Amino acid sequence: MKKILVLTGVIFFLTCSRKDIPLSPGKDIGSDAGDKEKYAPYVEDAFDFSGNHEFDDLDNDPSNGYQDVIRVVFSEKMNSSTINSTNIKVHRVVNGEIQGAIPGTINYYNDLRMAEFVPSDGFENADSVNYMLFVSSEVTDIHGNKLDQNQNGTSEGSPFDDFNDPAFRCPASNNTQPDFTPPFLMGYSPAYGSNDISTTPDISVSIFGTDVDTSTIEAGDIELEEYETGLSVSCKLDSVVVGVVGVTAWFSPQNSLDYGKVYQLIIKNTVQDSAGNYTDIDGNSIVEADEDTVIHFATQLSSGDPVEFPEVADADLDPDLKLIHVRFTKKMNTSDFNFTNIKVFKQRNPYPADFISGIIRTDSDNKGFTYSLTEWDGTYPVYIFISYAVKDVDGFKLDGNEDGVGGIREKDDYWHTF
Questions:
Q1: Neighbour count for residue 210 (Cβ, 10 Å)
Q2: What are phi and psi of 110, to 5 degrees?
Q3: pLDDT value at 301 more than 70
Q4: pLDDT tens-digit map of 103-162
Q5: CATH architecture for the domain at 43-168
Q6: What's the rounded Cα separation, in Å, for the pair 16 and 18?
Q7: Beta-carbon contacts of residue 133 (< 8 Å; ≥ 6 apart)
Q8: Is 312-417 a CATH 2.60.40 domain?
Q9: The whole model's pTM is what?
Q10: pLDDT tens string 153-186
């Protein structure tokens, strides 16, 4: 049964998140034809007739409301058939509460990449009233690409790629705006890279926000799996603790975990606040669909000791002998010392190239190897690659980035530049 408690304090944690790379501006600016390109449009700016957000009464007649317009400029030329009253609306906002859309006419100026909303009855000059421009993620550019307002390169639809600007108002408005500020991930446990976690762990997720909707917290907000096999581990929600500035949800596995294994915990952004804003996992104030944090940790050994993953202790190149010498922190499974797992290149980026052939010889204590560069011409730089898949004699894979947990694809591949 889910239990809700109230605390007067809250514990802060460090977080680790995946981030997306923003899009570049669309390449079809100024173009009316061409092949479908990959750059999606977004709203560049929105303003009234005077270029700001406070309306002027353009006809100087207060009896018919403030006669002004709202304009929105896109990053690219748009498909005019999608610039309509279904996809572009202006909502009345009263004391921060979004109400219905007001009637009006929408015009589109292709050369300016601009849509214009003209109200039918003028804007109301009242102390409690604002107006919000809404542009749906369903509007498309001339190549059919939908709006990508969070500019992460993916068409995610509503609400993630919708555009909202609630700051339009007449002079008398108190400018009370709707809540579009998302709660954000404040911390979690186990910590990333932990290598001594109990097989019956307490899993916690802390979310910052004074109005988190606890009814949206459920067991499905996390996913747990054994990393190597990908086997899912069912978890249950044990309790939700409400603090002064946020909430902490506590979860636990339905069954005990295995000793000495790496697990992957995914924290999803499905928790919402009372305004319906989804959790901002990476703290960049941009909420994205399937935005999540991935945590890797290892359970303790059956003895209770932490798992010690092998790391690269040292890597040297002797240019006279044309010899690379690599040492590890533990004795290794030397059958992994082969050209599948160990390679030397002249180029690393944008992709590894110009492989330098050689001979791999294992050190007598099985804690290292030498790589004889039989075809090296003596020029620099030289890059050595060691795969995350190399194991120690206990079967634990390489911790190439030294974050506490080994064997993570791509993250634990080891590179060294000479």
A1: 13
A2: -60, -45
A3: yes
A4: 999 999 999 999 999 999 999 999 999 999 999 999 999 999 999 999 988 889 999 999
A5: Sandwich (2.60)
A6: 7
A7: 46, 70, 72, 88, 89, 90, 117, 163, 164, 165, 166, 168
A8: yes
A9: 0.76
A10: 888 999 999 999 999 999 999 988 888 889 999 9
The DSSP result for 6-35, as a single string, is E-S-----------PPPPPPPTTTT-S--S
Q: Which CATH architecture has domain 184-298?
A: Sandwich (2.60)
Token pair listed for 385: 């690659």
Cβ neighbours of 107 (radius 10 Å) = 12
Please say if the pLDDT value at position 228 is more than 80: yes
Contact call for residues 182 and 275 (beta carbons, < 8 A): no
- What DSSP line would sit under 61-108, residue for residue? -GGG-B---EEEEESS-B-GGG-STTTEEEEEEETTEEEEEPPEEEEE
> Is 184-298's fold the same as 312-417's?
yes
Query: In which band, very low, low, confident or very high, does the pLDDT at 34 lie, cut at 50, 70 and 90?
Result: very low
Q: List the strands of the sheet with 359-362, edge to edge.
A: 312-318, 323-328, 368-372, 359-362
